[in-house]
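ok here's the first one, seq then struct tokens
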Amino acid sequence: MITTLWETPVHTAQLPDDVRTRAAADPSLLPELMPAGHPGRDLPWTCRTEHWPEGFHAGLRHGTGAWCALLVLHARTAGEDSLSGAVILHDPRAGAANVGLPGLPWGRPLTLSTLPGLLVVIPGWLAWQVAPVRTEEDCTVLAADTA
């Protein structure tokens, strides 16, 4: 089940282990995991696997195409309540952090725990970052952008 979180089309899903394993083995399956009618389903994607070891932290990043997707393949973290290695989405538009109503435009950042099987699909213009990964924890993510 895909859940729409904001007016900006951000989609998340928690994939079952067998689907996550198939997508890790064949990243070309990624478009099929998107909601029916999603414009990213018909676009070519480039994929790469990123390993985020302990101490890793990524500053703000942006996709290189119209859409960006992140699929957590493996996560050795403290769990759902942990911010270690969390994916944080930011609205990069000037003044967005000062908006009183989140989502109009966005307002505050959205933090997603890195649980194995988490799929996040966002517009390429939306900024994202990885929170610092704690000692003895790590995370592996399939990152993809439309070509």
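and now the second one, same deal
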Amino acid sequence: MKVIKGPQVFPRSEYMRRLSAVKAKMVEGDILAVVITDNAHITYLTGSVAHSYDTRGVVVLASRDEPIFILRWMDVAAAVQETFLERDSIIGYSEELMGDADRNGYDAVIDVLLDHGLGQGGIGFEFCNLAVDSAEKFKRRLPQARIIDFSNEVTRIRTRKSDLEIAVLREAAAISDAGVLRAAEVMRPGMREADAIAEIVGALARGANGKPGTWIATPFFCATSRIGNPHTTWSEDSLRKGSQVNLEIAGVRHDYHVPICRTFVLGKPSDRLQRIHEAQLAGLEAGLNAIYAGAVSGEVAKVIHSTTEKHGFKKRSRAGYSIGINWMEKTTSLKLGDKTVLEPNMTFHLHLGSWVEEDFGYVLSESIRVTESGVEVLTKAPRQLFMLS
């Protein structure tokens, strides 16, 4: 049966723009082909959002308009439905490559390179995403090729978003807000943590403004005994009067993630919790006032850190990181010493979370877009310490 192509998130012209940027980098390095293996980059260049955990790769050829997507045969239908690619640009490899200690899907990728006469010349690879044995496989089977590390090039390209991407990020931000507001509605003493997170995740799936969530990113639900660490989920316990919950979630649209953090307390907050909220709120607002196109990321971080310290709390972690497809982009951070110059349509999770001791921490964050003159705050949930009865 013929697989029917579904509606694309973005028009073909958007993907061709992205590919043109990649090919410009290829020209600079005299590269004939690039092998893309990072899942976020595959999404960025093709539109594929299926979460397959089998080996797959996209080959961008200097001589060909469309890239070639190589993946397991059973995932071809999803690639046809989701991506802008024509059917002859999608190749499914045999089940014989599954569960084999010596061969895998990257052998099929190499076969494509060889079929296109690319046994020699410059070929770029995302080595930071490859296991050692996979990297060695490419070198062993392509002994005449000039191997070039292309690890961070696509990440750098996608750091500055198009207006179309910003529109999707706004949709995801509204979903993040809905998750926060649902948490405030339902969390009460006696409620199981599992039931609370079920309500929050339900809101993230239902979405906002008629736009459903299209994926559930791992929600971090750090309740009273776990508020000193940022990356744990719910437990088998129930919430109690006086419980604190540090919540970090992300609304997701077509793999574009928009994170948000808020802190909740079931009852009256301690003096310490109230003070750290005021300190981190001041730091967040100072950071927002320091962000604009042309600002340096490290200088923004310095403003945030100095503000929180003036209020009596030293923030040890960085102040934020670039966001987009997947929760975090890897090249740009709002951290002390970072020299990145901010550009319009860069997007960040401005994170004022602070873990002061092993048994005490607090979270507050916004996802933002850099503009020519300042900043657009994408997330809109009340910027408060939520006190629930």
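notes on #2: The mean pLDDT is 95. The chain is about 35% helix and 20% strand.
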